[in-house]
Amino acid sequence: MAATTSMVTSLTFTIPSLGLRLPTRSYPCLKPQRRFVRKAASNVITATYELKAPPYPLNALEPHMSRETLEYHWGKHHRTYVENLNKQVVGTDLEGLSLEDIIIVTYNKGDILPAFNNAAQAWNHDFFWESMKPGGGGKPSGDLLDLIERDFGSFERFIEEFKAAAATQFGSGWAWLAYKANRLDVENAVNPWPSEKDKELVIVKSPNAVNPLVWDYFPLLTIDVWEHAYYLDFQNRRPDYISVFMEKLVSWETVNTRLEKAKARAAEREMEEERRRKEEEEGKPTNEEEDDDLEMYVDNDNDDSEAE
Ligand SMILES: [Fe+2]
């Protein structure tokens, strides 16, 4: 572990105004030589982040989740997170970053920065809508079912554990099924369950807007257990809402697709680690050492000549 960590120090992503310096290793979406320039001088403000509609009509989940719930939950709560995020990041160093990047940067080792909650809630809700489908529920198949049975003993046991996590998240928050493939240290996040084990499914719950991206997990499934998610349909009966979600709404096809992507990404990481290890053993400079001058950063100046 230590050797792996020490290999990568030169290629970094920096946000000077936030005092943050992150390795791009863990965040492949952060490309070197990418430069964001504040465009405040142009007085043009664009909505960087858009409210994505659920992948089905608002009444499509009835009778299990009402149109009225979707109208409020997506049409008002989700919309507000997106609108507030746009207001928060416009003209700042965060403008132009992906939602995932903003989440990682602003989680700030648990010392959460102001934009985190809106960015994470915008991402979490997109992920939640896509975790459901009309006529969902039932049982997964293939690799997903095999892994569930391996890591939880049985599908039935998994269901019970997931329901328990969702029911016992105190106050507002989320419950997740995630693929834990992070042997790597994450320098801007705190892994609450550090382990040498990898490539396993885990159930985690998170308060407020926190999601497993900040622990470098691959989220596969989530349920929103904020009261606004179920109060219109179930009042205070959160366990009934959770049961209906698992039995009637979960899109296991989506979860399976996410798992395949997570496994592919984990395999890419392993290959990259192995390549770096070999280069170090052979005394060759790694790509990152060769690219020592490359640095992704956010520019605070208002030099219009650089604003493209
Ligand atoms: Fe919500």
TrEMBL record:
Transmembrane spans: none
Any one cellular-component term (Gene Ontology): chloroplast nucleoid
Keywords: Chloroplast, Iron, Metal-binding, Oxidoreductase, Plastid
Reactions it catalyzes: 2 superoxide + 2 H(+) = H2O2 + O2
Primary residence: plastid
Biased composition (Basic and acidic residues): 263-287
Protein's name in the database: superoxide dismutase
Organism in which the protein naturally occurs: Gossypium hirsutum (Upland cotton)
Gene name, Swiss-Prot/TrEMBL: LOC107953603
